[in-house]
Design goal:
CATH topology of one domain: Pectate Lyase C-like
CATH class of one domain: Mainly Beta
Distance between the termini: 49 Å
Organism: Pedobacter africanus
InterPro entries: Pectin_lyase_fold/virulence
Number of strands: 34
Structural class: mainly beta
Protein name: Right handed beta helix region
Number of helices: 4
CATH superfamily of one domain: Single-stranded right-handed beta-helix, Pectin lyase-like
Length: 504
């Protein structure tokens, strides 16, 4: 008994020492503090900029769970082209009245194969397209035959229209992370108004960013001020005098030096809402590994607010599993895979999960054989989040692609390739600086080039596991690197910590 007691005591000592070692190696970012009650204190830089709160993204800002919608129409496998049969079911449900919950109902595609020669279009609110599984033996939608296309396209109509007069932001500097600012007059605004926070492009900003002297390789375009007017969709949460508070933070500093900013109310009459696609396996027919005359995107969203794609698998498409265009807002893409793309491995291909919209959430995703697996496009306005995503056998890099994306969190991304946020120089037609207020948190990479632009903000590499790269061009400012190759960063997920802080 004594030997057993001694052995148990030794084990207890070893366990305690190991726990103490792990505890002692826990580290925290200098940019924020998670308090005992779960709230977060953000530590500003010399200009007041902080890491923004990314928690209010995805379906209904993450404030409502994705619902389980009752089936109102069931379709079984058919021989030949099933496109017309499924489209007829979509059209039938589209003609049904909306229920009080904002939905018409779900269309259930039973297990089996469905060959589709064209595109399935969803153009009405409140429709869910649901299968019975996204693996072999489930519901398989096949992009049959030839032709680059989206297999499922969800899109409303129209565009954002300005309503009311514009009002100037009067602060000389509104830092990244801020959720309030002063305006010339708040008299014509009320809590709940949807507003656009407008940040103009100016010639002096482009000059200071050095985007008017991109090295020309033939066809290279220097940036033009009129092409860099940015519009951030927000909602007013409080008004105190002429102080306006908004739901989602500023993700790029609004500077009087570079034209300041304005706000105005807006409408989007034709925008869809409450549409989802779930539990489906998508495949594209193809003639060979470099064939490009076949299905290009499994599911495409545009002109829609509050929707989702979940439990999807795509195989053999040339571009993406899910692609969100610029008018897609508050979309959640989760628990999905983009596998084994078929195309030439070059530009404009294999953007596995692509985002050009605002306030969107991508989480729990996997890819193989992609290029830009988790990616934003030109002038994508944040906040947006990629969380807990894996990438294998990648052929390019993750991160903001093209030019000047603002406010993206890459949280717990695990890739055998690179995450880069840098001056892309004359790649493409002259991409230049890829983005600002890009936060790379606790990610595992082969390598990463994360740099700060010359003006207008910072980019963050916190807890990155992997090699630090110099980037494409020499002499660019380093990003805010902290804890490279250091384990046990806490919180392990910034996004999860911010969601928890919001709920407390």
């Amino acid at each position: 008994m004594k030997i057993r007691s001694v052995f148990a005591f030794v084990i207890l000592l070893i366990s305690g020492a190991m726990f103490s070692f792990v505890k002692d190696n826990i580290w925290h970012s200098r940019f924020l503090t998670v308090n005992k009650d779960g709230s977060i204190t953000y530590h500003p830089d010399e200009k007041g900029n902080t890491i923004p709160d990314f928690s209010l993204v995805g379906y209904h800002h993450g404030l409502k769970p994705i619902p389980e919608i009752k089936v109102v129409k069931t379709v079984g496998p058919v021989k030949g082209d099933a496109g017309s049969t499924i489209q007829a079911a979509i059209d039938e449900v589209s003609a049904m009245p909306l229920k009080p919950d904002g939905f018409r109902g779900a269309i259930l595609l039973k297990k089996g194969d469905y060959a589709i020669a064209g595109t399935l279009n969803i153009n009405a609110d409140g429709i869910v397209l649901r299968g019975e599984g996204n693996e072999t033996g489930g519901t398989r939608l096949i992009a049959a035959g030839k032709g680059q296309r989206s297999l499922v396209k969800i899109a409303g109509k129209g565009k954002i229209t300005e309503s009311g007069s514009r009002v100037k932001i009067t602060d000389a500097y509104v830092p990244a992370g801020a959720k309030s600012f002063q305006v010339a007059s708040a008299n014509n605004f009320k809590v709940g108004d949807r507003i656009m926070v407008f940040r103009p492009g100016t010639e002096n900003w482009i000059h200071d960013l050095q985007m008017d002297k991109i090295e020309d390789r033939g066809g290279t375009k220097q940036w033009k001020a009129s092409e860099y007017n940015l519009n951030f969709e927000r909602e007013i949460t409080a008004i105190e005098g002429n102080k306006i508070s908004i739901d989602n933070p500023i993700v790029m500093a609004m500077e009087k030096l570079y034209g300041g900013g304005e706000i105005f109310k807006y409408e989007f009459a034709g925008r869809l809402k409450e549409v989802g696609v779930e539990n489906i396996l998508f495949e594209s027919a193809y003639a060979g590994d470099t064939d490009e005359d076949h299905g290009w995107t499994a599911v495409e969203f545009d002109q829609i607010e509050n929707g989702w794609a979940r439990n999807l698998t795509s195989r053999f498409f040339g571009y993406a599993c899910v692609s969100l265009n610029g008018a897609a807002k508050n979309i959640t893409v989760m628990d999905s895979k983009c596998l084994d793309a078929k195309s030439v491995i070059t530009g404009s291909r294999r953007y596995s999960f692509s985002n050009n919209g605002q306030q969107n959430l991508f989480m729990n995703l996997e890819t193989t054989e992609g290029r830009h697996d988790y990616v934003t496009g030109a002038k994508t306005c944040g906040p947006n989040v990629f969380y807990n995503c894996r990438s294998k056998n990648t052929h390019a890099d993750i991160g903001p692609h093209h030019r000047w994306s603002t406010g993206t969190l890459y949280d717990n991304i695990d890739t055998d390739g690179e995450i880069n946020i840098q001056d892309r120089g004359n790649w493409g037609s002259g991409h230049g600086w890829a983005g600002v207020t890009q936060v790379v948190w606790n990610c595992k990479v082969k390598g990463a080039a994360i740099q700060n632009p010359w003006v207008s903000g910072k980019n963050y590499a916190i807890g990155v596991q992997g090699q630090k790269l110099k980037g494409r061009l020499d002499g660019k400012p380093d990003g805010e690197w902290e804890g490279q190759n250091k384990n046990n960063l806490q919180p392990a997920s910034l996004y999860k910590a911010q969601v928890k802080a919001r709920k407390n």
